[in-house]
Amino acid sequence: MVRCQAMVHGGACLAHLDGGETILVDGAIPGELVRARLTHRRGGTWFAAVDEVIEASPHRTAPPCPYVPECGGCQLQHIDYAHQLELKRGIVLDAMRRQSVPVPDHLPMHGMDDPWRYRWRGEFHVIAGTEGMAAAGLGFKRAHSWSTIAVDDCLIHHRAIAGSLPALRQAVRRGGAAGLTALHLTAGEDGSEVLVKPRPARQLDASAVDAAATTLPDGLRWNTDSTTLRWRGNTIRVRAETFIQVNQAQMEVLYGLALGRLGDLRGARVVDAYAGIGMLSLAIAETAAEVVCIEENRIAARLGMLNAEMNRAAARVRYLAVPVEEGLPVAAAQGRIDAVVIDPPRAGCAGSVVGWLALAGPPRVVYVSCDPATMARDLHILAASGPYAVEELDVVDMFPQTHHVEMVASLRRRE
Ligand SMILES: C[S@@+](CC[C@H](N)C(=O)[O-])C[C@H]1O[C@@H](n2cnc3c(N)ncnc32)[C@H](O)[C@@H]1O
Predict the structure, then answer these.
(1) Is 370 one of the catalytic residues?
(2) Which among 29, 146, 218, 252 could bridge 57 via Cys, Cβ 3.0 to 4.6 Å?
(3) 108 and 251 belong to one structural domain
């Protein structure tokens, strides 16, 4: 039996065995007394799962999904939503304190009114049955495992994706080659279309996809090339190879905060680093004089330029299709930079990017991140020992029911 302490990034609770060894317990809530089953050990840490709850937290709730806890997708469904938000706020605050990043005491937390069916994108594994593809299912990885679990629905995916699953199963059973491992799905066109991309490409017979598409519910269709999303009056072309914010409702909150923190951009020259297909850049270009987008994925950069043209912003949006490490000094050599937005992947920024910002960065930097630890590491250099002050740090719940969390920090260069 162990008493669970704080929740750590990943959704497990810290606890200690009688001998003092550290364990991380899945399926627990801070404060609970649980009987835990040790599952594996990595480094000096044991991992465990809850077998029996002896003293339950008042925040414990029955997960509505029948695949919890076997499915590895949702780590927090057993916790009421308001408490999920509190725990995530605590994880972000803890990451900042560990790196001595001076942040405001109270971090605003932006949750969802309805924390279900929010994912506009997802990847479903193809799970061959005992008779091979003829009985294949679709599903996800099990927690801490390479094995998979087939599902009939997923409560955090958009209705268009959930509504496509029976027809997709049919397509896979009739036309899936033995090498087909996954289907990458993106909802678009206001939820009336799903972009279907087999992984690897060409492992799913196109005629089987066409035949299955005729069985889709009314008002739903598939596209196998690209789809479109709409945001703030812009129509944005999306492909499977390019990043999107999977939670489109919370994207409004996240990017709305980023835009607000950038302040008055009239006449400004802004760098959007890690710009993707230009979702945020287009909104910045509504007021800024010029937006320099830096994006190393050439497919995303090409699509970003197309999106700028489609939305009549090509005169103000420019792409540098290079790594941010190379692009920042180039953008600076071409003219004064008034503000930089950085929205890196989970690994955070390269040391050279943080170093360049610390030495030569503009008065205003807005940092959007999906990883508290790497954001805190970068903010340590920029703010704890560097020239910036963290004026605001907002936490946005882009991924309810899971341990993932997103943050927006607004940094002001000290005089
Ligand atoms: C979190 S996404 C940001 C997307 C973007 N802000 C948007 O509104 O869609 C990160 C993006 O950074 C790109 N990327 C990752 N590492 C990079 C690097 N070193 N230099 C430039 N782009 C990079 C990825 O291809 C991806 O498009």
Answers:
(1) yes
(2) 29
(3) yes
SS3 content of the chain, % helix, strand, coil (to 5): 25, 30, 40
Residue 331 lies in a domain: yes
Cα distance between residue 81 and residue 351, in whole Å: 36
pLDDT at 19: 85
User: Quick check: bond before 69 cis, omega within 30?
Assistant: yes
* Residue 290 sits in the same domain as residue 323: yes
| Same domain, residue pair 269 and 386 | yes
**Ligand 1 pocket member 296 (CB < 6 A):** yes
pLDDT for the residue 53: 97
Give me the catalytic one of 74, 293, 349, 370: 370
Decide: 321 in ligand 1 pocket, CB within 6 A. no
Give yes or no for residue 415 having a pLDDT over 80. Answer: no
Is 397 inside any structural domain?
yes
β-partners of residue 318 are 292
Amino acid at 278: G
C-alpha of residue 293 to centroid of ligand 1, in Å: 10
- Residue that has been written with the tokens 């408490």 in this structure: 83
Distance between Cα 296 and ligand 1 center (Å): 7
State how far the Cα of 123 lies from the Cα of 212, in Å rounded to an integer. 19
Q: Are residues 215 and 280 in the same domain?
A: no
Strands 109-110, 33-42: pairing is unpaired
Give tens-digit pLDDT for 318-362.
999 999 999 999 999 999 999 999 999 999 999 999 999 999 999
- Per-residue model confidence as pLDDT tens digits over 240-279: 999 999 999 999 999 999 999 999 999 999 999 999 999 9
Q: Are residues 269 and 331 in the same domain?
A: yes
Give the length of the chain: 415
Same domain membership, residue 383 and residue 306 = yes
Q: 301 C-alpha to center of ligand 1: Å? A: 10
Looking at the fold, whether 154 and 225 belong to one and the same domain comes out as yes
Residue 92 forms part of a structural domain: no
Q: Whose CA is nearest to atom 1 of ligand 1?
A: 345
Residue among 348, 359, 350 nearest 387 (CA) = 359
The rounded distance, in Å, linking the Cα atoms of 95 and 8 is 9
327 C-alpha vs ligand 1 centroid, how far in Å? 13
Spacing of C-alpha 213 from chain mean position:
29
Instruction: Report the CATH number at residue 408.
Output: 3.40.50.150
How many whole angstroms separate alpha carbon 162 and alpha carbon 144? 24
Which residue's CA lies nearest to atom 4 of ligand 1? 276
